[in-house]
């Protein structure tokens, strides 16, 4: 109609493409595409660079615990021990950090006086600003020594649980120490996510619980925790993603060996990230390519955990 | 088990703001008392002082006495949690717990009082409360479905069932029908008439026909100006308040000549 009716087009000007809109839309789209390109680029790099060593590998890459790729003839290496160590360290961190993070978040939102809550929130965020190499230094110079007597106690009283079986490492540089430092490092993100979701609990639900005669703790159990659960799980998984990839602190604290050992108080185990950092300077032959293959595995694990976290967090939308 | 409430010299504050001034009234057991008045006159605020929900708001405070039979609920030795178990509340917007099933919603308060209820006892409480709330027939086949999946009117009756499941002495209702359609409103009003046989009921309403329909006694609140405290103008039998009120202000409000 508009093409035939000239009076209408005169009154309503034709849509015109404004320069500012075009530029802004283009640059925003470009930024969006760029991040995909970077991700694809990294993945492609990891794949291509790891192929030579994987082709030449005479061991089984996924089930072997050996690491002997620094040769030009018949390298033998596998990531079984590394995957185990990586997941174990992250799980220890998660198990230790999550309850504390939930406690801090609940305290900040529901118990602390407003000024103290603001200060505390700020301090927790500061924990996230400490570089991981500093955590590593603190862990290896101070913490492991302080933990020794505690580990002795754990062995004495809980030694019957295989996890805590002795003999206790004399240096204290064990999986449990590494997990403990990782727990401190992932505490801020889990706390922040939990705090946000606890703050979003509708007042109507909290008042409903209080009006039924719930104490504050009962109100939290009845209205706050069930409502916040998806957010807390999402935060925990994001924290786990960070713990999986953490390199420096683990590399400095853990006294590594490539074994699959569930004994948290003995030295042993190693994580992928720390392994790459420690092995890279001495890599030769297929060594670098093998480390890149290990990096590819870490990339896959972290991606899976992060996607899982996104999925869990987004599911919360049903509730609100 | 219905109890009498006796309020004397009650003043309510939000921080320094004096929200309600000097209320004296008696609320009779086994009857419905309606609070009417324009928005901002303090009727909801006053209602929330009757089960100590007012003090949940930061900075809120109260002076005066509220006697529940022979106990002053503001006595320092009285635990507000115990008061709220004795005086139930239904809110303006239905607020079932979104993460709980219909069954668990009804039991939420009952479980607080008695953590270990046998399954048989729990089933009894759920059925009795839902029957009392005229909701049983509509939900008996989907008790394990989420409470938030019900219609607005059903959710509000679910909240009433949740409040009566703990067998309180008094039931406070803060504009329970203001978000509901006329049919759901009628269902709730029928329910109120039925519940008053066992409970002391206090209802805040903006709907004067509703006050006239459901209540035995009516209290009229008014506020002179924004920033001034709300006051109880008069309280009396609903018939009298709506036909021959003592105060000119009440008559103006009832007849729509407000101001």
From TrEMBL, chain A:
ABC transmembrane type-1 domain: residues covered: 83-309
Chief subcellular location: membrane
GO MF term (any one): phosphate transmembrane transporter activity
Gene Ontology cellular component annotations, sorted alphabetically: plasma membrane
Membrane topology: Multi-pass membrane protein
One GO term (biological process): phosphate ion transport
Family annotation (SUPFAM superfamilies): MetI-like
CDD domains the record matches: TM_PBP2 (cd06261)
Cellular localisation: Cell membrane
Listed transmembrane segments: 21-48, 79-112, 119-144, 174-193, 247-265, 285-307
Keyword annotations: Cell membrane, Membrane, Phosphate transport, Transmembrane, Transmembrane helix, Transport
PANTHER family xrefs: PHOSPHATE TRANSPORT SYSTEM PERMEASE PROTEIN PST (PTHR30425), PHOSPHATE TRANSPORT SYSTEM PERMEASE PROTEIN PSTC (PTHR30425:SF1)
Family that this chain belongs to: Belongs to the binding-protein-dependent transport system permease family. CysTW subfamily.
Function: Part of the binding-protein-dependent transport system for phosphate; probably responsible for the translocation of the substrate across the membrane.
Protein name (database record): Phosphate transport system permease protein
UniProtKB/TrEMBL annotation, chain B:
GO biological process: phosphate ion transmembrane transport
Keyword ATP-binding: yes
Entry superkingdom: Bacteria
Entry keyword set: ATP-binding, Nucleotide-binding, Translocase, Transport
UniProt keyword Zinc-finger present: no
Protein name, entry field: Phosphate transport system ATP-binding protein
Domain called ABC transporter: residue spans: 5-248
A GO molecular function held by the record: ATP hydrolysis activity
Organism: Streptomonospora nanhaiensis
GO cellular component, one term: membrane
Pfam families: ABC_tran
